[in-house]
Amino acid sequence: MTTGEAARMLGVGLNTVKRWINKGDLRGACTPGGHWRISKDDLYAFMRARGLSIPGRRKTTPARVLIIDDDPSECTLLRAVLEQADFPLNIQCIHDGYTGLMRIGAWRPDMLVLDILMPGIDGLEVLNRIRADPDLDDMAIVVVTALFDRSDVVQAARSAGVAALLPKPVEARRLLDIVGACLASPVVCPDEPQEYRSNEGGGGYV
């Protein structure tokens, strides 16, 4: 899980969590992209040692999900899939990378579902800018693209620490499973980008 997710569970600021990691009070691992990740076991051990209760896993308030895809029909499809989740979601759709980045800054979504091939600021540039902003460490990212097996897309996804890289057309159950892991039960959202598979394995991180 990210430091932002840990901060929300602990009820403290992001810098407090990072200070605990730097002091060695809370165990964390640094990704190649320079972001800290904390395993659920280490966080639970930290909470138990301080007499803190471990909250229930399922969210009752809507999680914010932003879809950035220049194809309106794809946005409609992704929204329809996400609305099948068995927990509440507040879903917004944006059709270009520039406006999407502005909405991320203003709305602070819990999860981003991102296309890569877009005019102007494409998905790769969106990932680069997200990676450069440590305040966005707590935002889960799912990339859904027809370019899922292109080497530069795979590398960018790994560097940005995305939760999943999925091919279009998206498999509904697969996307819902990933969203559920990251939002309904944030402590089990992947600490690192999930393993990449070739076309023979269905493509994408799984």
Give your account of this protein's structure.
The protein has 206 residues and is α/β, with parallel strands linked by helices. The protein contains 8 helices and 9 strands. The chain has a 5-stranded parallel beta sheet, with helices on both faces. The chain has a two-stranded antiparallel sheet with strand order 1-2. A two-stranded antiparallel ribbon has the order 8-9. The longest helix has 13 residues, at 172-184. It is globular, with a radius of gyration of 17 Å. 34% of the residues are buried. Mean pLDDT is 83; it is low at 190-206.
Which tags fit this structure?
206 residues, alpha/beta, two-stranded antiparallel sheet, 40% helix, globular, disordered C terminus
Radius of gyration: 17 Å
Multimeric state of these chains? Answer: single chain
Beta-strand content bin:
15-25%
The tally of strands reads 9
How can the largest sheet be summarized? 5 strands, parallel
- For the record, give the distance between the C-alpha atoms at the N and C termini, rounded to a whole number: 17 Å
How many helices? The count is 8
Sketch the topology as an H/E string, one letter per element.
Answer: HHEEHEHEHEHEHEHEE
Overall SS class: alpha/beta
Mean pLDDT: 83
For the biggest β-sheet, the strand order reads 4-3-5-6-7
Measured as a percent range, the helix fraction is 25-40%
Low-pLDDT parts are 190-206
Shape: globular
Which helices and strands occur, and which strands form pairs?
Blueprint: H1 3-10, H2 14-23, E1 29-30, E2 36-37, H3 40-49, E3 63-68, H4 72-82, E4 89-94, H5 97-107, E5 111-114, H6 123-131, E6 140-145, H7 151-160, E7 164-167, H8 172-184, E8 196-197, E9 204-205
Parallel strand pairs: 3-4, 3-5, 5-6, 6-7
Antiparallel strand pairs: 1-2, 8-9
Helix pairs in contact: 1-2, 5-6, 6-7
